[in-house]
Amino acid sequence: MISMQPIGYVRSPYTSTQEVPRGLGAKHETEGALEIAPEFELGLTDIEGFSHLFVIWAFDRSGPCQLLGTPPTDNRPHGVFATRSPFRPNPIGLTVVSLLRREGARLHVRGVDMLDGTPILDIKPYLSNVPQEQLRRGWLAEAETRTKS
Amino acid sequence: MISMQPIGYVRSPYTSTQEVPRGLGAKHETEGALEIAPEFELGLTDIEGFSHLFVIWAFDRSGPCQLLGTPPTDNRPHGVFATRSPFRPNPIGLTVVSLLRREGARLHVRGVDMLDGTPILDIKPYLSNVPQEQLRRGWLAEAETRTKS
């Protein structure tokens, strides 16, 4: 077993999962903050130069793991590792946010899809994109096509 | 504290960190495999449709946290959350790999930068890029410019 401790908490307007936009075409433009604990503030040095960040966080209000589940973006079941389902073997969430500004140990960001008070486990700089012409999005692209037709 | 268990292990040609390409211009084209434990195989259903995956893994052979450190890509120190340093408050690694093929519970991938035997915590589909014109890469872009000039 590997033990993790929160390095801070998400401030978000969402207090229940029902409020978080989901499904095809959901926009993630919501502003919020990453409040990092004072003892880790030094680790934010030079983060201001990055436009986007990976936030790795913990689903602290999800249920037991479901290896197969039907996501809000489709009416067919898919494996948990092929979806962003919260019902995972390890309760790890990953969100790309854009960094608006830093205020000490508080990062103001756009693109939060976490609930208020969500524990943050790590932050990493977003460094590069996958070449767009190489990107395939499996069942999600198929579900989008079915919805449009 | 939040406890995590490995869902599987990375198979990689690298057995020590000195072998992993690092620094500016490092290419991550190395092939390897993600060996998922049989009890989680059902969770891989439909993963074949995705060209790229996020692999969230544990640094199981790193040292204590260093909030400020000088990465191999620069000669100046930066905060740990602005780098991919292994010396993090929580020992979480994140790698984007391309999925070559699936063989049961074994995913053959390109782009491994983990050591052989690294514990895998989660796998998620890579769904979209940040708009390239919005991407800024802070000290890393500056270090690249200094190297070129």
Task: Characterize the structure shown.
2 copies of one chain form a homodimer. The first copy, chain A, is mainly β. The first copy, chain A, contains 1 helix and 9 strands, in the order E-E-E-E-E-E-E-E-E-H. A 6-stranded antiparallel barrel of chain A has the order 2-3-8-7-4-9. A two-stranded antiparallel sheet of chain A has the order 5-6. In chain A, strand 5 (68-69) and strand 6 form a beta hairpin. Chain A is globular, with a radius of gyration of 16 Å. The mean pLDDT of chain A is 94. The interface between A and B is large, with 63 and 64 residues. Strand 1 (2-4) of chain A pairs antiparallel with strand 1 of chain B.
Produce a short descriptive summary:
Chain A has 149 residues and is mainly β. Chain A has 1 helix and 9 strands. At the A-B interface, strand 1, strand 4, strand 6, strand 7 and strand 9 of A face strand 1, strand 4, strand 6, strand 7 and strand 9 of B.
Low-confidence stretches of chain A: none
Rounded to the nearest angstrom, the distance between the terminal CA atoms of chain A is 47 Å
- Shape field of chain A: globular
Average pLDDT of chain A: 94
* Helical fraction of chain A: under 10%
Oligomer: homodimer
Specify which chain pair forms the largest interface: A-B, 63 and 64 residues
Beta-strand content bin of chain A = 25-35%
Work out the radius of gyration of chain A.
Answer: 16 Å
Beta-strand segment tally of chain A? 9
